[in-house]
Structure formats: structure tokens, C-alpha cells
Design a protein that fits this description.
Layout: E1 49-52, H1 63-72, E2 80-82, H2 88-98, E3 104-107, H3 120-140, E4 144-147, H4 158-179, E5 182-186, H5 196-204, E6 211-216, H6 217-220, H7 226-233, E7 237-242, H8 247-253, H9 270-279, E8 285-288, H10 295-309
Parallel strand pairs: 1-8, 2-3, 3-4, 4-5, 5-6, 6-7, 7-8
Helix pairs in contact: 1-2, 3-4, 5-7, 7-9
């Protein structure tokens, strides 16, 4: 596919087979400096911004009124999915008239058609959706597109997921550079990139400042500590997902039940996380990704995020 060719929602599903592969590069050493950014002094008054996912708003309202609601509740921004079926004019009008920012978008195709799939047509579907998402994000005034790069399972080996996803991402890096919108890889339960050391290596192998990490704090707690990830990934972290998790609940009721706790009531050590966040000089967006609801529920989320930021 010619990266200069204009892509539309109508055409991106008309995929073509691609079979480019990338070398499976080895190793970063344990002793390597994984975060070149030195600790910075953060102003005593935090400038962390509050966002959430658009789908968390459960009120039956227009796009405009949803934006007004979030602005009224103290949110600074909201993240949309892309590609999406919303009318661009509605989004732009809501953003401009309310002042609510759209800091980034979440790719809406990466789970159904992952870049790690054995079928090149499936991979192409995700790759082409990333072009739409990058261009949408630029229009909205955002800076990142969240991407789950691969899924490892019985049919897709770890090595194949690594090679295939990197090959596909390399195809859209020129578009990221053109738009000025960065690709933000998220840690999820996809059996892939399971440690911060490996996550750092995966990002660094692209040798591009147009790709980094979307650190989902709650997702890590099942198998690690988010403050450790933050310190190791350092300058690679582009955005944060604010989420909670309870190991006790997961152990007693099942792993997915671990998410069914309120912010500040799980096993995330928020003071330690925020300490690490400040140590590496991060002072940007945090986006809630938890069960939403009506005005009252969203107001509570806004208040809990304020408490987290002050930890």
C-alpha cells in the first residue's frame, strides 16, 4: 500500500495481502540504561490532566452534551475510538465549543484483526485502520493512537507475534511522522510483552521517536508492579490509563473479578506509582478506563482521580 494514498473508512476494509517481515532482533542487557531521562523537579501544583474513555459516558445524550457534561465535571479531555461511526462535525463542534480536549484515540480494530495474525489480509486490516486512526487523531488535536500490537495464543507463537507486529507497525511509522501523532503500545492481557524490560526493547528496536508506551496501571498489577514499569520505561511512557485491580479478589473469585474494585480500593500503591511518575518527569494525561455510568458516577470518578493525582 502506498502510504501517501488517502485512505477512507469506506475503503480500508478492502484489504490486500502483505507479507513483509522484520528481523527478530536480539537483546538489551540487564545493565543497560533503560531510561535516559533524569528525574525532574515537578511543580508542587500538579498539572496532570484528567481524561476518560468516551464509552464510559452512559447518559443518553448527544456528542455535544456528553462533552459538556464531562467538562462540567472537571475532566480536561476524553479519548475516542477510531475508526468510529461518529460524525466528524459533531466531534469537532463539541470539542471547540466546550474546550474539552481529545488527547488521543484508541484503535478500534486491533483486537478483532490483530497485527500478529497469520493471515496477511487480517494484519492489513489493522494496519490500514491505524492510518485512519492517526489521521483522525491529528484532526481532533490529539497526540497518540493507542494500539494493542499483537495477541499470542495457541495459533500465534510469541516469535511470530513479535516479528509480524513490528513489520506492520513499521508500515505506519511514516504516517505517524507525517501527522505528528505517536503510536502508543498498551500493556494488556494478550500474553505478549510481559515485562518492562521486554517492553523497552520492543519500543527501542524501532529507533523512532514516533512510538512509545501507553502504560495501563491496573493491567500490570496481576503480574507486576506499575511503579517498576514506570521507572524502567521512563521517557517511553506517552500516556497513562488509570485503573485499579485487587489480587485478593482475583485469587478468590477469578482473575477478571480483580477489576471489580473502586479506584483506591485495590492493590495499586498509588503514592508509590505517583512518586515514580514524577521521578521520570512524566506530567501529562491520565485516562480512566473503568466502568462508567451517569453523571453521579462520572463525578465520583473525577473526584477519585483528583485524589490519586495528589497521592
Amino acid at each position: 500500500m502506498n502510504t501517501k494514498q488517502k485512505l477512507t473508512r469506506k475503503t480500508f476494509m478492502k484489504v490486500v495481502g502483505m507479507s513483509a517481515v522484520a528481523p527478530f532482533l536480539p537483546t538489551i542487557s540487564i545493565g543497560d540504561d533503560l531510561s535516559e531521562r533524569k528525574p525532574e523537579i515537578i511543580p508542587s501544583k500538579s498539572t496532570f490532566k484528567k481524561s476518560l474513555k468516551f464509552g464510559m459516558v452512559k447518559e443518553e445524550l448527544s456528542v455535544m452534551d456528553k462533552f459538556k457534561l464531562l467538562k462540567d465535571l472537571g475532566f480536561d479531555g476524553v479519548e475516542l475510538d477510531s475508526p468510529n461511526e461518529l460524525k466528524e462535525k459533531d466531534i469537532m463542534d463539541a470539542r471547540d465549543k466546550t474546550g474539552l480536549e481529545i488527547p488521543g484515540v484508541v484503535n478500534s480494530v486491533h483486537w478483532k484483526s490483530p497485527m500478529s495474525d497469520a493471515d496477511p489480509k487480517v494484519r492489513t486490516t489493522c494496519t490500514e485502520s491505524m492510518e485512519i486512526a492517526l489521521r483522525d487523531c491529528k484532526k481532533y488535536g490529539g497526540t497518540t493512537v493507542l494500539l494493542v500490537p499483537a495477541v499470542v495464543n495457541e495459533k500465534t507463537s510469541y516469535e511470530d507475534a513479535y516479528r509480524r507486529s513490528q513489520a506492520e507497525i513499521r508500515k505506519v511509522l511514516p504516517i505517524a511522522k507525517e501527522t505528528g501523532v505517536k503510536i502508543a503500545i498498551e500493556n494488556v492481557w494478550n500474553n505478549f510483552l510481559l515485562s518492562p524490560m521486554e517492553a523497552a526493547r520492543y519500543i527501542d528496536e524501532f529507533e523512532s521517536d514516533m512510538i512509545g508506551w501507553y502504560l495501563d496501571i491496573g493491567n500490570i498489577i496481576r503480574y507486576g508492579w506499575p511503579e517498576q514499569w514506570m521507572r524502567i520505561l521512563g521517557k517511553r511512557v506517552l500516556k497513562l490509563d488509570i485503573k485499579e485491580y485487587s489480587r485478593k479478589k482475583a485469587n478468590e473469585e477469578g482473575v477478571w473479578e480483580g477489576f471489580k474494585v473502586e479506584l483506591l480500593e485495590g492493590d495499586c500503591n498509588w503514592p508509590e506509582v505517583m512518586k515514580a511518575v514524577k521521578e521520570v518527569g512524566y506530567n501529562g494525561w491520565g485516562s480512566a478506563e473503568i466502568p462508567g455510568g451517569d453523571r453521579k458516577r462520572l463525578e465520583k470518578i473525577s473526584e477519585l482521580m483528583d485524589k490519586i493525582y495528589k497521592s
